[in-house]
Amino acid sequence: MKKIIIILSSIIVIIFIILMIFLFNTNSKDKDIEEVKENETKEEITKDDDNEFSKLSYYKDENLDRYKAYQTSNPDLNIEDIVTRVNLNLDKDTYTDTIPAVNLNTNYLLVNKFNYLDSNYIPDNLELLDNSYAKSGIYLVKEAKDSIEKLISDAKNDGMNIRIASAYRSYTYQENLYNNYVKNDGVEMADTYSARAGYSEHQTGLAVDVTRTYDNFNNFENTDEYNWMLENAVNYGFILRYPKDKEDITTYSFEAWHYRYVGVELAKKIKASNLTFDEYYVRYLDGTNN
Ligand SMILES: [Zn+2]
Predict the structure, then answer these.
(1) 39, 66: one domain
(2) Which of 41, 89, 141, 263 could lock onto 107 through a cystine, CB 3.0 to 4.6 A?
(3) Could you tell me the distance, in angstroms and rounded to a whole number, from the CA of residue 165 to the centre of ligand 1?
(4) Is this structure's pTM higher than 0.85?
């Protein structure tokens, strides 16, 4: 009798185990099916939402409607240019929807008519340039200063006479300068050739205006020094900041004399890319913290 009870209960236990295994399997299969279904719906949603812009690493979801609108008004532009320009806010008027500049005290600090510096921003490590290289009282961030002094002295060995006519400008200096221009020419005109206070790259301590022995800036384009700079400045970490035919991106007229220090490595990359600093920033530097 005992034997029978043991056998019977064993059978019951075995049946119970088999039942549990069976139940568990169906359950997980159902789950699998549910998951597959869920994934399919997700894929469908992404497919619906899929747009040619989102392939780009610098695509921003919140700008999607603006990309579409910009594409409609600029049908000849490619996807890369549309996303780049909208990310730069170039679909808006200059000096509107402006934001405080980020990456302060780095070589890739972007300042333009949409990204401004605070009135009390003074870059770290400003140093006075030796007046054999520059007019008196000209300051730059140390790294840029060392580099431009080396550039000028190497250029001299090639028979070039490069001098720095302007570099770091404080917020107050820029404010007075701009206000004077406005007094003489009005806001609209002044905005075409001068940055408003806080929006001038000169406040970064990384920008220089180069001349041939303090000639007029407008004449610089016609000098050997200009051509020397175009070819060699990159090796010292400087890039031409407002190039020809890029006015619609930089929002500045071509400035043959205005160079910006970004460091040698980055300067070479930017030059090779054929992009302006603004475009390069949007595509490769925006969001980086190193
Ligand atoms: Zn300048």
Answers:
(1) no
(2) 263
(3) 9
(4) no
Say whether both 36 and 138 belong to one domain: no
Please check whether residue 71 lies inside any domain of the structure: yes
Query: For 210-245, what is each residue's pLDDT tens digit?
Result: 999 888 888 999 999 999 999 999 999 999 999 999
Determine the pLDDT at residue 213: 87
3-class SS at 57?
coil
CA angle 179, 180, 184 (to 5 degrees): 115
Q: What is the dihedral of CA 187, 192, 198, 204, to 10 degrees?
A: -160
Residue 262 C-alpha to ligand 1 middle, in angstroms? 15
C-alpha 94 to ligand 1 mean position (Å): 18
Which of helix, strand or coil describes residue 217? helix
Q: Which is it for the CA torsion 188, 112, 267, 212, positive or negative?
A: positive
Distance 248 CA to ligand 1 centre (A): 18
* Number of structural domains in the chain: 3
Kindly list the catalytic residues: 255
Q: Contact at 8 Å (CB) between 223 and 257?
A: no
CA dihedral (132, 133, 139, 142) positive or negative: negative
Alpha carbon of 209 to ligand 1 centroid (Å): 5
Average pLDDT over residues 280-287: 93
pLDDT digits (tens, 9 = 90+) for 166-211: 999 999 999 999 999 999 999 999 988 889 999 999 999 999 999 9
| Beta-ladder partners of 112 | 115
